């Protein structure tokens, strides 16, 4: 552990709590991005704002090396009510940092400050603070806005906290698949409504929808090879009025989340959903409208980048706390858009035995601030070695 981080622990904990208390959703991270930009400027970074609407990049060049590296953190919160009861809990009703992006931002800020103080590297450091990771396309927006054209990186890296991590280790990094892709599918079932006492005169979308839900269960069990990891979840079944007992509605909606680790499997699953929805609805005399919205591709770590990251991690953590292989997570991350444009790797830190992310009682573990900043510092200094 770097002595400066120990000295700064209370300061960065307070900063994390401040960000936590003022969550901002999607691209509306105005307060957070302003705070990030001001801190980076005060530490000597050349700061660029408005990338991908509200993204921030701080650049620090030292020496003469042509090497460059990117470190990315996400800043946005979730549109959900916090229920932690903490003194620094959200002051914005309906919004909360229930995924730990307040911690991701703070870890990178602490690392950026330490790297600027030590000045022990030769090359270009780009610290990237991204808005709208939670399904709104912030990563894609920053890439489309010329992120890697304006700030070229040999490799780009990201971090996230994960509660209840496998084997209770500290840092998780491996080559290959790390996180699943994410797709949203809405199936609109158009039937014919009517009186609950006269179902023979209707095409009941509730019955049809129930058949569709059952048929969709065959995709993973009968269409996907056993070695593949796939999740097909019908999360919402919406039909009728919650106060109606005797009116058969005209339409029903199924809202789905799809997770895969392989692009070919991803395409096959989506195509089978469309086929099943269309055919089952047709069998009942109804019609299906299938709306597919891709959210993010699978996060697949570049093997060279993963090796660089693990080498850096072993300089600050015991080897026993840094597993080389583990089960990839079925969570998703739009860091995949950055990896599609630049090779890199995504790592996770164990948040401890806490509620899972996206739960209203989740909170980032402040002990990770120094660990994350230590890793960032080691990673930059390992790759951008003086010549």
Structure summary:
By secondary structure, the protein is of the alpha+beta class.
- What is the helix/strand order? HHEEEHEHHEEEEEHHEEEHEEHHEH
- Please state the average pLDDT score: 97
CATH class of the largest domain: Alpha Beta
**Proportion of residues in extended strands:** 25-35%
Radius of gyration: 23 Å
Using the alpha-carbon principal axes, give the shape: elongated
Structurally, the number of domains stands at 2
Low-confidence stretches: none
Could you give the count of β-strands? Answer: 15
Helix % is: 25-40%
Question: Structural class, judged by helices and strands?
Answer: alpha+beta
Q: CATH topology of the largest domain, which one?
A: Aminopeptidase
Largest sheet strand order = 1-2-4-3-5-15-6
